[in-house]
Amino acid sequence: MADRPRPFDGIDDLLERLNRQVETAARSWERQVDDRSQLDLSMGGAETSLDLADEGEAFVATVDVPGYESDDLELRLTDRDRTLAISGRRERERETGDEAENYIRHERTTKSFSRQVRLPASVDADAVQASVNNGVLTVRLPKHEPDEEARSIDID
What we know:
Heat shock protein Hsp20, HSP20-like_chaperone, stress response, 156 residues, A-crystallin/Hsp20_dom, Small_HSP, 4-stranded antiparallel sheet
């Protein structure tokens, strides 16, 4: 009777392999979340789409901003942590009296958004250009040229 195989002999090995695979998958998922968070610093779900491209000499951010005028948008660039912040606020004028009564359906409301993206390298803040065309904001961020000149350092 001792030669007879036991049905649960391999279960411990199977559970140990499964545990290692789950841990490996969890570590991989955490790295992917960390990599994304290094670039996109926006809070909550983003209602507007943002693309960031590296075009060699400059980064180009393209953001869908339908219905927003250039006066509705604000751009801020922080050198310290290389963060580009884009926000927009669109307000609807309130109709009164007869104008308000003419509406059968009134869905357009005040809207706002805020996006932040960390840039992979330093940029020249003085040379940044931005424009809005057909509901698309394009921000061109020229890369900061590193100073390759060697400098002498005095020793005290």
